[in-house]
Design goal:
single chain; 53% helix; 3 domains; 4-stranded mixed beta sheet; 466 residues; 5-stranded mixed beta sheet; 19 helices; Conserved hypothetical protein from pyrococcus furiosus pfu- 392566-001, ParB domain; alpha/beta
Length: 466
Amino acid sequence: MLKSITKIAIGQLVPHPHNPRRKVDVDADFLQSIKENGVRYNLAVIPADPPEYRKMVKSKRKYTGKYLILAGHRRHAAALECGLADLPCSIYDHLTLVQQIGMMIEENYQRKTLTLAEEISAMQLMLEHGDDIRGIATKTGISERTVSRRIRIAKKIGVDAVEKSERMAGARINLDDYDKLCEIGDEGLRGDVLEKIGTYEFDAVHAAALRQERRNASKEKIENTLGETAQKIQPNEEIENAQPVVKLYRYDSQDLAAAQEAAQKAASSAKVFYKEDTDGAIHVFASESSLSKSISAADAAAALEKQAREEILFRLENAFRQAYELRISYVKRLTVTPEIRKTVEKAAILALLTAEEPPGDYVARNILDIKQGKEIGSWRGFCEKIIEKNSFSRDALLLRSVYARIEPGAEMYTNADGEYLPCIELENAYAFLEKIGYHTSDEERQLLDGTHPLFAAETIETGEAA
């Protein structure tokens, strides 16, 4: 509570060791104001003499006869530089450490001077000293929902990681990005995505990580299914008179069914083995005596060839989807400059002159954030949906709308054998994106011009000699 108001010698004032604001910046304008007008607003301080305060701050510094600053660290730093002798102070007492930190957060939060790392570090310290989310919200004047979001970020990502990302990407980071990071349970995948936070690739990498996490969970389920009855062998181990049964790499319901079938064979006294290759695929083998019918060498080779082709198509599908997500992510995060606006307006005029049908339903929903269940329908209907999206700035709305007309979607541009098929629509999409600053990756370029190594690849590792 407030005890008294008085002037205190500047030498008796000490920055609080738990000040959430790690760096106190004093600019030239603020210094000039202090020189001309002095400090007009009281600092909030608390006596540092009582043993309980010294114990709470856990510092070895000598605080005898001094005061810890709760509010006014910037004014104090400026006054020191200006050579002022004393400062007006409001003296508080009987405040717990949690209450002290709450006061410091509240002051800085209202002025929007704390970084996210500073906010979550201070809130985490309050939790460590026995407070809870409701208590932190009450003491800081911040909503419980906001406090909960920050505590979740602190637990899932960590203060140091947030601080590092803020140094690297700064204002380009949206708080929602940290919420998206918290969706990823795997620490390694989350770390990989964190490296891309604040960049145009973030959304695409985040989506890929979520897919990988789902695949990893499915893979674990498949391994558990096989492990109940089949025998796991080392990657370099070979079984005499064993033939390949199936290669599992999608880790979807189809792969799970195949694993269950192999496990059933193993349970019925069949000799079934499985091993994992360097790409993470699982190869299932069975001894010849366990097979229901003998398989000729030609049939076995044909089966392996078919399986290899299916795997190529699967990997190509993933590559095209990743490229699509990169393009969409760039457009949705791009800040429209006057120069970019000119390019977009030209493309908009062309789209209006040539448009007959609305964009693909999937693309339109994706880029304009239209929820499932709402029909797009005619070109007029599509335009009406655009107008409804008043949550976007006019420039962002125009960019998204135009690009929805240009983007061909996430489909593969290959035939059934995985051979490259040119796509003029995809070429036009990249030409437009590069005009507005997009940097096409090497893999995207290979998908575009047909030089990607997966196109019509003659062989792919199957775990067995061809």
